[in-house]
Structures are given as structure tokens and as C-alpha cells.
């Protein structure tokens, strides 16, 4: 055996025997089978003929691959160190059985010689890639911008070990967390395949606590590790059943290890992907192109993992402040009078609203960049009027252009559309004289599909958006149908028909072609043989999952250019890195209690995926909602990062003011949201600058708490604010889990007397909210929109733990582009210690363009004091007794006194009996 250099540890005296023992014994178990030829329904005869093992077992694949001694790759070179010891390479070849034979080929076109490369990026991040020998690795990557920055490495948290380095020995490797010797990634199960249109790799997991992988509808945040395949392929598919692939593609997971440490793994590949969970526990990744390139993040905290992941794919955009307000939409406004009626009844019901939407109803025949000249002729004037009152307007745009008007002519002249490949005899369009691809989607007739990978298309798109903004003063853009969606592909002779070929009918059929009514990978979208890019260099087969991503980049730039502000883009289809440009709503959900509960899981996952500006359609998009469901949903939706009511054509209005009881619950919950917007905005600043999540599960804060790892019916804003909604019909109580910590009731300020699983009362107009001890939350007196609330005074909520708490607030003008980069913002730091509250002001820039915070701090609530102070001094001067009061029942001190947040202040509590409350 050959020993690898000390840059990565190999101890063969124990390592090789342990690998071999694992391989020999695993087929006595039913928990680690890598299925041979999924979807083929193999019998014993054709299973054996395929070179696989047949052993029927309930709940496990009956036909599965042999171990890595008999299937996969072997070492074919010495290990070569990369420059500056930044990693290593080793050449592999398909395993030989005997003198010259090869293991079975599952789908053909297997690649005999490949390179395995490991890159050490930082003490907590590494990557590995397996790609054809002699090829350029970058050519196999998705055309997506990622950050690859090498950091100085004094000591890595990980080591990479090869099972053996002797030429001719089977290839397996594992990644180990050095401190605990936990095996993070382990390929000893076998199954490695590198072929032209089929790539597969399996890994053992060190834990059953697995999260992520999407976009799919998951019933629980924590994966059930039974044999189940999750398809990852962008499709216009509502979140109805959990077998389907939905709108986006996010091949990223996080796992929680036994000691509470967490790690994340990202497969950087834009092709259709299937991920199968296995009970042992383990995972199998299958994809139909590109290469196997994985980034691994060692955390060790869950928040560290997300921060490291978003450092690679890109941090989220900073939403404009107004986009954190409540938003109302629907498909089915008949005219501007319908919109006016909604605005009026919302205001009359004292429900805050910052954004009003127009769906495709406003268009002339559902055509982009048009306004219905009859029913919505007054829309520009309406928008102008509501903006003066502080309400913003967002319009929808689809990525398809009808062939019968001038917008199409301009786009066609600039060659802005996706085209048929013209260099292959096996590929043909419906019209050989027209290179454009035509489909049938909005506006329900022949349309062409915009190619956002083309420079000319992006320029044309920006000009159209700018010209349209001069007619209709929208503030943000909503981009839909961008999976890309197409109605009835392959289903009817008069619709888009994809020719039979290896791209639309790959040899590995994928789970995406075995869900719902689809039968081919191109069903409900466009043909995989179509091309994109300036030189038509990409097949749709390669970049299908990137359509929404590419549109989001073009749309964000165009929206900012048109509005001159930060603006906001909301996209249905997303990919890793989309969060830099867009938010996401969780799709065309249903007015069902189960969908309401699932939305919390969706929030968790998209925060993990680096898209924290997300939320579900409140009350449900599809089907007619009920008053009770809508009342409970608005209580939950008031705390979505993206909070919007929206529903479908043909169903009754369900904006909150449609029912008195829903209106009352909405007003109560949303006024709390608006009060806490400074805290929420600060969380988004942190996400934008450091990559932290905005909404997070309890597991992120209590990683060693085994119960917290499976809680998905309640959630946190940041570290400190817990939301526990009612998610079941006819319930007026809710089960809430309180980790072992200090917690206060938001409404009364009273400290919770106990922790663990508690049953709390939840009247029909009440949602349970709690604040974690040790934190200070910035707040502001609420109003009916953020233009008004930003003029009100600030407040502080101080929740003590061991007589200590801290927090901060980031403040800028809320809408200018690049305020953070340009330093046009103020940071206030808050700390309570030794009976003193310190407020420190930091201005990021002395620029005259930013004059600092205008409203003053007027109200401070301190929770958890044992008794009332005898006196209070501000910067050494005692204030009047009438400026503070103490609630002796709930132990809450309230101070009402003006403070200028542009200057430092110290609030000192005078002597009293400070017998510390037991923590």
C-alpha cells in the first residue's frame, strides 16, 4: 500500500479493514441498498442479467448494486498535491474485474477515466469533484456565479481519507470532522458511476437528523430516512403531494451530528437530480449530466453552515423596508374599482398594508408590458394616488411573449428568444424556417420564450421594463411561470411536441418524469433540445433549472434601473444564488390546514437555501378558504418574512377585510409585525452581510436539544422572538416546546414559569409569541404603512437573563440602492448589564447624504426585573418618577423618556433589592 502525504491523514492499519468489513456485511442488512435501474420494475432474471443483486425485501429495493469491490472505480495513479497544498488529485478508471472485464454499465456511455480532485478552501470548507480525465472542470459547471476564495488554513476542521492509494485498488473516500472523528461523507457503500448522461454517488451519513433538499413539499422538516426518492427539477407544480418536484432546484442538505455539530453538503449541478434517502442512514445522488462537484461546510453550528454556504452561492439582497410590510394580491380583479375596494376596506379595518399587486388581469389579453385599455385604463392614476399615501405597487410579468404585437417584434429583432438547435439532424422545430421555440402559455396562445442568458435579451428586457415604468409607476416586479412553464407539452398534436431524442428522453428517466401526469422530462415545460446563450451554447437539458435564476438577475437589474431605488423582485423558480436577486413565494398552495403547516417547513428550507425573503400565499391560493382557516393563517402569515394574501381566479375575495373576525385578527397580528419591523429589518441586514437566517427552527439555536431538532410547528425570528401558531381546525390551545432557557410572554412581559412541552391557550384572535431572555429587540410604534410608521418613535424591548441582555438595530433610508456598501446607515448597539442600559450609536459614514436616525427612542420595556428601581438616571441626571412605572405582577419596568439615537446614552437604574431572579 502507498501512504498519502501528511496533508491528509490515512492510517491504513485500521482504515482499510474497516472499509472492507463494511462492504462485506452490508448486504446482510436491508438499510443500505443502492437501487439498480430505478423505475424498471426488474425481475430476478433481468436484475441478474444487468449485473445486480436480487434479494426481495419489504420496504427496500429488491434489485440493487454490488459493493464497491465489484462496481465503481479504482485508483489509477499516484496522488498529486495541488499547488500550495490546496488539495490533491488522483486519477481513477472504471473497475476491472479479473484481467480486463468491466463492471456492468447501467445506462451506457460510461466514462472509463476520470479525475478525483479535492480543494481545501478554508478551515471549515472543502470541495471535491469527479469529472472526465483531460476535460476542463469549469466547462462541466453550471453557468452560475459562485465565490471560490481560498483562505489561510492553519488548522482544518476536517481531513480527507482515501481507503487505499495502491493502483488497482477500489476507490472510496471519506471526509472526517477531526475534533470528534465523525465521518461526514463516506462513499464506502459503492455505486459510483460517471457516464455521459448518468452520474451517481452514495454516502453514508453520521446521523438520522437530515434537513433540506428541494424544492419539494415536505411533511416534516426532519427527513424520514426510509427509502424515498426526492426529484429536484424545476416544474410548474403546485405543492400538493410530497412526491413531486416543485418550482426550484436546491440540492443542498444539512445534518446534525450526535454532539450537536452540524455540517452542510451542496451538489453544484444544474441538471435534473434525484436524491434517495436510505435507512442506514445514507443518501444516493443521481443526475443526468454535468459532473459530481460537492461543497462541504463544517459549521459547526447550523447558522455557521448557512453562512458558509451563502458565502459560496452569494448573500441575500437587502429588501426595501416597505417590502417587509403586509401585501395584498389576487388573480381575479375585474377592474381598478376592485383594487380600490380592497384598499379602502383594508384601511377601514385598521389593517396595515404596504403593497398592492396586480396579477395578469391588468394586462391587455395577458400580454406583458400592456394595460387593459377598458377595465384598467385608470390603473396609472390609481398607482400614483396610493403611492402618495405610502402604499407601493407591484405588477406581474411572465417570461413569454405573444407573437401578435409590437413587443414580440422588438424582442425578435434583437434575437431575444430561446431557439431550436440547428446543427443536428435529429432535432427539428415545428417550423423549420423559424428558429424560435413556440409554446402555449399566458396569454393562452402562441408565445416565444425569452432567453435571459443572451446579452441582447437582457438589454431588451431592461428597456421594455424602463419604458413600461414610464407608463405605470410600479415599485417592484413579480416574475411567474419561469420554470419555464408551458401548457400541454407533448400531450396534444397541436401543442409543442418534443422530438424523441436522448435529451428529452434520457436513458435514466428520473423521478421528475414519474410524478403526477408527466411522462417525459420535457412535459409541462419546453424541449430539452432547445438552446440558450449568446452562441446558443447551452442546451435546455443543461440549464433548465436556471431559467428562473437567469430571469431574476435580469429583472432585478432592470427594476433598479427603472425605479432608481432598491426595488424588489419576487420569483417562483429559484436556484442556489437566486437569493442575491430575488425573494420567493412558496407557490400555488391550497386552502388547507396541512398546507398552512407545511409553509413553516418551506420557510425553514428557503432560509437554509439562502433565500430568507419568502412566505406562502396567506389563506391559500387554490380552492375556497374558510373564515376560520383564514383567521389562523393571517396570524401565522403576519410573521412570514414575505407576508402576502393571494388567491386564484374564480374564488371569493379572501383579503383579511373580507370577514370581520379575520380583519380583527389581522389588525392585531400585523400591528405587532409592524412594531417589530426594525428588528426584522436588522435580521435582513445580518443575512445580507453575514449570511445568517432570518426565520430559523429552534434546532439552529439549541442544536444539542434532541427535541428541538424535530420541532417544525413553531419558529424563531432570529435568535430571540418565537412564534407558535395554531395549525389545526377548531383548536383554542396549542402545544409549544420551550427549550431550557428564559422565556417571556410578548403580551404581558411575564416570565414563563417552566420550560419543555406546554399547552397554551390560544383564543381565536390570539397567536402565542415569546421573547427569549438575554436579548434586546428594537421596535417602533406601528402605523398603517411603513411610510407612516418610520416617522414614529422607536421602542426597546429588553428581556433579561441573569440581569443581562444585548441587541442592535441597523437603520438606513430603507429603499436606496447600496446603502450598506456606501456606508449610508447607522448602527445602534444596546446592552443591559450591572443595572445599566447602554445605547451606543455608530454612523457608518459621515456623508451628508445620510443624516442618521430621525425619530427618537421614547419607550423602553425591561422584562425580568425583581422589583422597581428607586430612581432612574439618564446620562447621570435623574429623571422624574412619572417617566417610569413598574408592573409588580409581571415584573416589567416601562420607561417613557425621549432619547436621541444619534448619540450615546446610559440609563442607570437606582438601587433597590436586587435579589437575582433564579435563572
**Average pLDDT reading:** 93
Number of helical runs? 15
* CATH fold call of the largest domain: TIM Barrel
**What are the low-pLDDT stretches, counting only 5+ consecutive residues below 50?**
1-28, 423-430, 913-919
Strand percentage lies at: 25-35%
Write down how many β-strands occur, each being a DSSP E stretch of 2 or more residues.
52
What is the radius of gyration computed over CA atoms, rounded to a whole number of angstroms? 29 Å
Number of domains: 3
Biggest sheet features: 9 strands, antiparallel
CATH superfamily caption of the largest domain: Glycosidases
Query: Which structural class best describes the helix and strand composition?
Result: alpha+beta
Terminal residue distance: 58 Å
The CATH architecture name of the largest domain reads: Alpha-Beta Barrel
For the record, what CATH class of the largest domain applies? Alpha Beta
Percent helix, as a range, is: 10-25%
Task: Tell me what the structure shows.
- The protein is an alpha+beta fold.
- The protein has 3 domains: 302 residues, glycosyl hydrolase (family 31) (Immunoglobulin-like), CATH 2.60.40.1760; 360 residues, TIM Barrel (Alpha-Beta Barrel); 205 residues, Immunoglobulin-like.
- Helix content is 18%, strand content 27%.
- It is built from 15 helices and 52 strands.
- Strands 3, 4, 5, 6, 7, 13, 15, 16 and 19 form a 9-stranded antiparallel β-sheet that branches. Strands 32-31-30-27-22-21-20-34-33 form a 9-stranded parallel β-sheet. Strands 44-45-46-52-48-49 form a 6-stranded antiparallel β-sheet.
- β11 and β12 form a beta hairpin.
- α7 packs across α9 and α11 packs parallel to α12.
- The longest helix is centred in the middle third of the chain and has 17 residues.
- The radius of gyration is 29 Å and the shape is globular.
- It starts with 11 loop residues before the first helix and ends in a 10-residue tail after the last strand.
